[in-house]
Specification:
Order of helices and strands: EHHEEEHHEHHEEHHEHHEEHHEEHEHEE
Number of strands: 15
CATH superfamily of the largest domain: Nucleotide cyclase, GGDEF domain
Radius of gyration: 27 Å
Distance between the termini: 29 Å
CATH architecture of the largest domain: 2-Layer Sandwich
Number of domains: 2
Length: 436
């Protein structure tokens, strides 16, 4: 599920950085801290109870201030394992009293934003970088120093933490001060100790964040959350009510036989991207890729929620088909270069009902998915889209909840079901170029 980004004002971030969360608890978050020893004791004790890196970073920053360290700005940067993200960071400033959690999108390491960042050397090589903004030419080499100098900050240090096991880069903390003399040797020793203790907490929080990212990417947001919370035993799960959303590419077998595997992979990923983005944009959860098909759910808890989920699922179908039309009309260059390719088409079907949402499989290999009669019926409805020449079909149970005008396509036999079912199709796609 796409994270909700917040308005960063009064701060500003580059386009590849997005604000996820913000805290402004101020000096009270320092607790009873009066000395550096209090900071150490907290890091070795009660800091383990901080539920998030945001609260940890904010508390630590204000505790350093309360202990007498001349800190005006502090950040923590940690890499992650995610196909679209480089990592996360937490940034605190004494001047505005804010502590932000930001996400950094995957970025080209050859861009100026990265090459001229003082974080580059500590991240890649694990070497500290200590800078004085008053040194001639340093602001041109590291543009961020010019921004900090406008705030009165003159000393800046980017300090790598011990590398996490399996990581290909170092997590980094930065600390900056407006004190013209910087930090005393004693304060530098104190900061070194803080960094060692802090790294233990960063490793713990980042490991959980990576686990969340991986589970969300491969299982979906809701399934990933349940697995992370301990729902891992075979049979573990719960019954839920949901609109089941099935989609399938047309002509995939012919495509696989006609084009080389790299081209098939490009087309398949392009196809799936159009559908997944539509589902997630409308609050659905993609649970499974089945070759050239998608299984998604739009959960609900009451009658009003069922109506909302049904209309969200239909809106996702509308967007998916519009996305495919746009993709076919204006494909990316690598897809456009595939000679003899045909427009991508699909069938989408929806049904609603109670399903079991949880773990199924063997003792050593489990899958977190939905099972039940409603899933089977949605799958059979999707197979009917080709015969009826309609890109979207829904069951009667879904049709009665939709705001869109629907065509009654009559009753049809579905394989595995004893009684025929009445099927409906949205009227606005009847004459669409997306036919089957």
């Amino acid at each position: 599920m796409t994270p909700a980004y917040l308005d960063p004002a009064p701060r500003q971030y580059p386009t590849f950085v997005h604000l996820l969360a913000r805290s402004a608890r101020g000096l009270p978050s320092a607790g009873e801290t009066r000395s550096f020893k209090d900071v150490e004791d907290w890091l070795l004790g009660d800091a383990i109870n901080e539920e998030s890196m945001l609260s940890l970073a904010e508390s630590l920053a204000w505790r350093m201030v309360a202990a007498g360290l001349p800190v005006d700005r502090a950040t923590i940067h940690a890499g992650t394992l995610h196909p679209q993200l480089s990592g996360f960071a937490w940034g605190w400033q004494k001047s505005d009293g804010l502590c932000d959690e930001i996400v950094v999108k995957a970025m080209n390491t050859q861009t100026d934003a990265y090459l001229k960042s003082p974080l580059r050397t500590p991240i890649e090589e694990g070497k500290p970088l200590v800078l004085d903004a008053r040194v001639p030419g340093i602001k041109e080499q590291f543009p961020i120093l010019a921004e900090l100098a406008e705030q009165g900050i003159v000393h800046y240090a980017a300090l790598p933490m011990p590398k996490r096991i399996g990581a290909n880069r170092y997590d980094v903390a930065t600390i900056a001060t407006s004190n013209p003399d910087g930090f005393t040797p004693e304060q530098q020793d104190q900061l070194d100790r803080i960094l060692k203790y802090l790294s233990l907490h960063v490793h713990r929080h980042v490991a959980r964040r990576i686990a969340e990212n991986v589970l969300n990417v491969y299982l979906g947001h809701n399934a990933g959350r349940q697995v992370l919370e301990g729902s891992i035993a075979r049979g573990a799960g719960q019954p839920i009510n949901a609109v089941i959303w099935f989609a399938d590419m047309r002509g995939f077998s012919h495509l696989s036989e006609t084009f080389p595997a790299p081209d098939v992979n490009l087309l398949l990923n392009g196809f799936l991207d159009q559908l997944v983005s539509a589902v997630t944009a409308h609050g659905g959860d993609v649970l499974k890729f089945m070759g050239d098909g998608i299984l998604a759910v739009f959960p609900f808890t009451d009658e009003a929620g069922e109506r909302t989920a049904s209309n969200d699922a239909m809106a996702a179908a509308d967007m998916a088909l519009r996305n495919l039309e746009a993709f076919n009309t204006n494909p990316p260059p690598d897809v456009a270069a595939i000679k003899g390719r045909q427009p991508l088409r699909c069938g989408i079907a929806m049904h609603t009902g109670e399903v079991f949402f949880g773990n199924v499989g063997g003792q050593d290999r489990l899958d977190f998915t939905v099972v039940g009669s409603a899933v089977n019926e949605a799958s059979r409805l999707e197979q009917l889209t080709k015969r009826l020449m309609r890109p979207v079909l829904v069951s009667e149970q879904v049709a009665r909840l939709l705001d869109a005008s629907m065509d009654d396509c009559g009753e049809h036999e579905l394989k595995g079901f004893s009684r025929p079912v009445r099927v409906f199709a949205p009227r606005h796609w009847k004459s669409s170029a997306i036919l089957l």
